[in-house]
Amino acid sequence: MKTILDKFRMDGQAAVVTGGAGLLGKEFSRTLAQAGAGVVVADLNAEAAEAVAEEIRKDGFKAIGVGVNVTDPASVQQMVVSTIKEYGRLDALVCSAAMDPKFDPEHAGQNRNTFEDYPVESFRQALDVNLTGLFLCAQAAVIPMLKQDHGSIINICSTYGLAGPDQRIYIKPGQPQQYKPVYYSVTKSGVLGLTRYLATYYAGKNIRANALTPGGIFNNHDDLFVQNYSARTVLGRMARKDEMNGAVLFLASDASSYMTGSNLVVDGGWTAW
Length: 273
Ligand SMILES: NC(=O)c1ccc[n+]([C@@H]2O[C@H](COP(=O)([O-])OP(=O)(O)OC[C@H]3O[C@@H](n4cnc5c(N)ncnc54)[C@H](O)[C@@H]3O)[C@@H](O)[C@H]2O)c1
Hints:
Number of helices: 7
Distance between the termini: 42 Å
Low-confidence stretches: none
Radius of gyration: 18 Å
Number of strands: 7
Shape: globular
Mean pLDDT: 97
Oligomer: single chain
Bound molecules: nicotinamide-adenine-dinucleotide
């Protein structure tokens, strides 16, 4: 007897995760592999992508690592060619690669990101990675998806695609204030537009497109930041890095077969009040 859990299985399918070496990309790659998919861990950092794939293989699941620059059409095409060469198909594309300025210790010393003098070059670069990158990956991935008559595209958004950043949470006593930069809100809002476009463009073609909107993931942030962030959420805490995995598998697999053009918000209630 088939159960609901069978709908979450992805045996015999293939999935690409861009930004697969990132904090969430690793989680997404591991999750889809555990569900039975052959995974392509794709990242600008090819070595890190291969290291993630190797860990997944050591656990007995299927994965390869590939280097990709999502802003370069030829590189993105090559990522899809490698996927087809390895698995013969491409069922799920998770676009997780992005420029995302963080406020954890790993990213200390970044620019303050004041709006008045924010460099236009940085704004343009972010549009290229965070939006054009998603456009190019979708454009390349739909070719095998159309042939197979089966595909699911998941674009990773952010709460800041839905609500303006609360810049007060980045204040640290005695230090010049840092800001979440303007491009992040702009590009993450754009992710939702692209997602709806893809969903309606491929009406009747068995290619679904949805967004996943995570809230802030705890990554050894300092106590003040955690306190400020947590106070803005209904659940009173930041997310653990594994708490988006159920949502990404739901969207990638046939468990979400009646969902397209939508946005799944997993933000601990940040946008609920
Ligand atoms: N971490 C969070 O708190 C959080 C919250 C909400 C939304 N998000 C979104 O989730 C997604 C993943 O976030 P994360 O925390 O894993 O980020 P991360 O910075 O840890 O990982 C991003 C990955 O993208 C890769 N990348 C950057 N530019 C690229 C390019 N041109 N081509 C290919 N790869 C490229 C990087 O090498 C990196 O491995 C992003 O879209 C981010 O905006 C993250």
